[in-house]
Target: Rhodanese domain-containing protein
Amino acid sequence: MSALSAFNRSQMERFQRHFSLAGFGIEAQAELLRARVAVIGAGALGSPVLTYLAAAGVGTIDLIDDDYVERSNLHRQVIHSEESLGRPKTASAAEVMRGLHPEVVVHEHRVRIAAHNALDLLAGADIVVDGSDNFTTRYVVSDACEILGTPLVTGSILRFYGQVGLFWSRLPDGSRGPTYRDLYPEEPEADAAPSCAEAGVLGVLPGVIGSLMATETIKHLTGIGESLLGRVITFDALTADFRTLNLRPDPQREPVTQMTDTEDAGESCAVPAPAGPDADPVTAAGDRQDHAGAGPEELDFNPFTGEPKQPDDLSPAEFRRELEAGRLGRIIDVREPHEYQAGAVPGAVNIPLGAVLDGSTDLPGLQESTSEQPVVLYCAHGVRSRQALAAISRSHPEAAVKNLLGGYELLHHD
Model:
């Protein structure tokens, strides 16, 4: 039977440009029509993903989201409109998707994906696309995909920065492939990054990242091009720079074999950090360039947030050099006491962020600090310490203060 027989007349007209596309054609289009894709989130990243997958001709889409449309969503969640306000996001998105491709089968799951239901929700999908907005969901989805052996495309955004990757725990040849936990082994604390409401996000950024997610999904389903598997792309909208992280599975990491309940970390727009031992940062401006031996200390951006290195940041390499040369003043750990007790930079004094912000504790070394002997602040991922630095700069503008880029975790994983 010809592959063309899978399409009705309206579909033949709708997908004609795909039919005539060299290297794609009728066979690839038929693969899309047969495919089943599970998409988590009908928000900022889900908007371009769902729009393009439906328009491209994916036959069945499982849409998982328990949220409702609000006006503050509309500057970036472009699948919705003013007429959608108050509606479930799944219903609003499904209506648009069916308008683009009336034959698409959309299963609306108006639930929050969690450890207790993830395996059931994702079973049967040819590929999973995660556009969720919090760390807890990302780990739940990643663990479920690792157990099921299902490929996973994931994306994240923060302010002007975004990231997208393709993970697959069980490759067709039976070997072990890279997963989200090989990039970022442990779920960070809830305040490791601000929410979109707190930090904001450039409205067009999800369009860029979500379109890349949809592209990788279509490539995987049809077998065209070079897969993103084993690589993670980050994008800086302010400079139009793309960077690539090469990723391999960590042979020391125990595979995930069962779902584990985790505490809800709340909304977060943060991009993940390349903390795995084989995460190899690669700088690119449109093209990938392999840099042998590159490591976390060489990064000129904070991989936990995607933000570029600031003049008052010290990279892990710079921190070590200055520390060994005796060119640093006091080192202040602004994490909580239990974090400090679990492991800290030798000689650091623990003053939690709250005490820094409310001024209830004198900060050692500020009066004596100079550009040659600055005070250095750090936290887990370089987020809270930047808050502390901003507060100290306002209250003690004469003090010389630096921030440890990527915090203790990046230093520790070097």
In short: The chain has two domains: 35-246, 313-411. The longest strand covers residues 152-158.
